[in-house]
Amino acid sequence: MVVPLTTSRRAELGQQLPLWRMVPGRDALFRSLVFSDFSQAFGFMSRVALAAEAINHHPEWFNVWNRVEITLSTHDAGGLSERDVDLALRIDQLALESGVRSGI
Ligand SMILES: C[C@H](O)[C@H](O)[C@H]1CNC2=NC(N)=NC(=O)C2=N1
What Gene Ontology terms for biological process does this UniProt record contain (predicted)? Predict the structure, then answer.
């Protein structure tokens, strides 16, 4: 069973994940990233895909050329769980290593 994030845990998210926003009307996190071209964006997506598969927690995402939009939520919990925070932190790391050009 996956446990939803507690209220106090949610209050810390702004500090821990400053580049992520809450999706309006949904218990989910969102970040948009811009890379220099499609190749850079897709390289980043490949790294995220491997990281996601390794922890069995998968992003909802959308890509157009150099832009990647990512939404994180735990379907098994009906909203945010610690798994989303873990994946978001990993994504932030991989974005830096993949030469992300701009954050949100
Ligand atoms: C059966 C499988 O373990 C589950 O469906 C996993 C797979 N990846 C997942 N990813 C996300 N984002 N949320 C989930 O609840 C989830 N559940």
Answer: tetrahydrobiopterin biosynthetic process
